[in-house]
Amino acid sequence: MDFQVQMEKDLEMVEQALKAYLPKEEGQQKVIMEAANYSVNAGGKRLRPIFILETYRLFGGEDFSYVMPFMAAMEMIHTYSLVHDDLPAMDDDDYRRGRKTTHVVFGEAIGVLAGDALLNYAFETALKFHDLVDEKLAKGRIDEKEAYRQTRMGNRALQILASKAGIYGMIGGQVVDVENTDKPLSKEQLDFIYRLKTSALIEASMMIGACMAGADNDSISSVEKIARNIGMAFQIQDDILDVTSTEEVLGKSVLSDEKNHKTTYVTLKGLEQSRQAVKDLSVEAVRILHTLPIESAFIENLINMLVHRMN
Amino acid sequence: MDFQVQMEKDLEMVEQALKAYLPKEEGQQKVIMEAANYSVNAGGKRLRPIFILETYRLFGGEDFSYVMPFMAAMEMIHTYSLVHDDLPAMDDDDYRRGRKTTHVVFGEAIGVLAGDALLNYAFETALKFHDLVDEKLAKGRIDEKEAYRQTRMGNRALQILASKAGIYGMIGGQVVDVENTDKPLSKEQLDFIYRLKTSALIEASMMIGACMAGADNDSISSVEKIARNIGMAFQIQDDILDVTSTEEVLGKSVLSDEKNHKTTYVTLKGLEQSRQAVKDLSVEAVRILHTLPIESAFIENLINMLVHRMN
Questions:
Q1: What is the DSSP letter of A38?
Q2: Which of A131, A239, B16, B166 is geometrically suited to a Cys-Cys bond with A120, CB 3.0 to 4.6 A?
């Protein structure tokens, strides 16, 4: 299938998953559902759920309802991290993707709570996977042995989600980033931050997709490496766009790294070497992708798209 | 066994669980482990993990290692809610339990991230329950059928944890509380806030204890009701202590509700009726406790202790 057509279908499935799993706006606490939904529906590339979906497909996964709770949960976790990152105590950003940030619209207290709500709801959502298995078992569509196998797969996926999002993953990267604001960073520190802050959730996405399709440990470990390279390339491309793009194209302010005195790949290595790094990392991701027993033109195209993206 | 002796043993087991499951302070992101541990180790009654432990015991649970991940996770979730609640954007408290609050010691950005870290790590920790089951299965100490049964119990406990901590539980209560700051509240609104903000985690604790011991649905639903009454009584007692206690005894500032223009049971109903409400709620909790097929002198004593507590 044509890459663009497939991409649109995937995006549709992501929106379907979000619609199915985002909370209804009701009850006395309605405003928190509104704030959570406002944040998630602010747009974005939906990159992480697409990686779950496509890696699941790559390893032969067929029942897409099984990955939908994880797709929704992953986007919720990504979104909560942005909501908290934008808070006055953190980056203090008023705009993201051309829209006012959550705390600007709903106030700072609800900004904090909306992030908490999305993080918590992500686990609530991912845990709903078990209800799908229980339902299949109750209807006799699978036997106990198969239900147990699927339940264990789901639990492994949940563990991957939790650990890659936490202090040894995304939050850990945020922390080192925050702690070193206004300090010059070495390349090693920058690599550490990018690997945790950006790669970790992409690693989790591809690993969850593979895991839920029943891939073996070697394959899960291969996609983790692929994702690590993709995440690094993605983040360095971000650094490049911050100095080469315009506010209109990017949907957020440019030259923000310079303004915030941030060490980036560009400040550390210059534009040329940064571009080369993006290229090297994506070539390496594709190389590992080719060692897998299965072909994936889509993921290869996706990697190339991310490398050449303008926003 | 004597109540005080048992209580001390339980508290020891809670500390053991926390020690086993709190993150090691290492790595480039070490400060976040320090902040998380600082927050959890600030003391506190450890009420929620004790309710897990004692309800587990009540329903015949014997392998306490099985509830330890949940005990630690519950205290992490309770603690994260306090860390975020103390933030300048929320209640802006500099002291808690006689110690400086997390954001005062580590800065506001790390305050936000420490709360996030604890919430995320709570799920990481609770999910480790599955490793215990897998280990027993691998060692041949249980068969596949039993392993699946235990795994499902654990998943149900995880679902209870997630839902009671989230927007339909604790966070929901926080939201309605925050949204109504400086507004007069009706008794119905106050009950809603107390039920979600305070009772929800106590409900979760007792339900998880019962669930992990293999209690039936009726019993789980009974302990949910018991816990709801306990939580309400506990929160109203908090309101009472805020106007009747001293800073020394309470370990935090008194008359804070008046200072913050908060509607409480005391402002709404007066001291006498508030005291009566605490009594009625605890009597009701004990009444339901007595309908259970098993006796629990300890939980009954615990309820009475909470009602008569001075801090």
A1: H
A2: B166
Tell me which residue range forms the domain holding A105.
3-307
Question: Shortest CB distance from B166 goes to which of A87, A120, A196?
Answer: A120
Torsion of CA A255, A258, A261, A263, to 10 degrees: 100
b/e sequence B202-217, b meaning 16+ C-beta within 10 Å: bbbbbbbbbbbbebee
Interhelix angle A265-291/A297-307, nearest 10 degrees: 170
Residue A183 burial (10 A CB sphere; 0-12, 13-18, 19+): exposed
Beta strands B99-100; B95-96: pairing state = antiparallel
Over 80: is that where the pLDDT of A290 sits? yes
Mean pLDDT (chain A, rounded):
94
Residue B238, domain CATH: 1.10.600.10
3-state secondary structure of A155: helix
**Cβ neighbours of B120 (radius 10 Å):** 27
ipTM metric: 0.96
Q: Are B180 and B189 in contact (CB under 8 A)?
A: yes
Q: What is the mean pLDDT of residues A77-90?
A: 97
| Residue written as token pair 């215990």 | B132
pLDDT for A1 beyond 90: no
Q: Give the Cβ contact number of residue A58 at 10 Å.
A: 22
Quote the number of domains for chain A.
1
Calculate how close chain B gets to A117, using CA atoms only, in Å.
6
Neighbours of A202 (CB within 10 A): 27
Contact criterion met (CB < 8 Å) for B116 and A31: no
Question: Under an 8 A CB cutoff, do B32 and A121 touch?
Answer: no
Q: In sequence order, what are the beta bridge partners of B254?
A: none
Inter-chain CB pairs, A–B, below 8 Å: 167
| A237/chain B closest Cα distance in angstroms | 24
Mean pLDDT by 10 residues, chain B (311 residues): 92 98 96 97 93 97 97 98 97 90 98 98 98 98 97 98 98 95 91 97 98 97 98 95 82 73 91 96 97 91 88 74
Please tell me what DSSP assigns to residue A24: P
Q: Is a pLDDT exceeding 80 seen at residue A276?
A: yes
Q: How far is A115 from chain B (nearest CA, A)?
A: 9
In which band, very low, low, confident or very high, does the pLDDT at A259 lie, cut at 50, 70 and 90? confident
**Angle, to 10 degrees, between the axis of helix A108-126 and the axis of helix B108-126?**
20
Name the pairing type of β-strands B95-96 and A99-100: unpaired
- pLDDT tens digits, A293-305: 888 899 999 999 9
Interface probe, candidates B25, B123, B125, B183, chain A, greatest A C-beta count within 10 A: B123
Q: Extract long-range pairs of B131-139: CB within 8 Å, 24+ residues apart.
A: B132/B65, B132/B66, B132/B69, B134/A152
Percent of chain A residues topping a pLDDT of 90: 86
Task: Indicate the residue of B124, B134, B171 with minimum beta-carbon distance to A113.
Answer: B171
Give the distance from residue B273's alpha carbon to the nearest chain A alpha carbon, in angstroms: 26
CB contact under 8 A, B116 and A116: yes
Best of A92, A175, A176, A208 to substitute, by most chain B Cβ atoms within 10 angstroms, is: A175
Residue among B32, B112, B51 nearest B300 (CA):
B51
